Amino acid sequence: ALTRVQIPVEGMTCAACQVRVQRALTRVPGVADASVNLLAHQASVRFDASRVRPEELVAAIQRTGYDARLEP
Ligand code: 9UX
């Protein structure tokens, strides 16, 4: 079974930013798919919780240079 998480992402200003974040997330082992909404500043990620933790998804976003954190 897959889990979905919404992650707020700050700093994306264009479609290329959106693609960078989306690609970074999709490359994390355990991620099934990821879609990033530029205008909503949100990433939606479906992942296998037995393989990857949400904190690792946040870290992958941060490595692309954008700011992300888990919602409280
Ligand atoms: Mo273009 Mo988005 O440099 O940062 S990729 S604005």
From TrEMBL:
Residues 3-69 form the HMA domain. It is found in: Cell membrane. The gene is pacS_1. This is P-type Cu(+) transporter. It comes from Luteitalea pratensis. Belongs to the cation transport ATPase (P-type) (TC 3.A.3) family. Type IB subfamily. The chain holds residues 12 to 83 of 795 of the full protein.
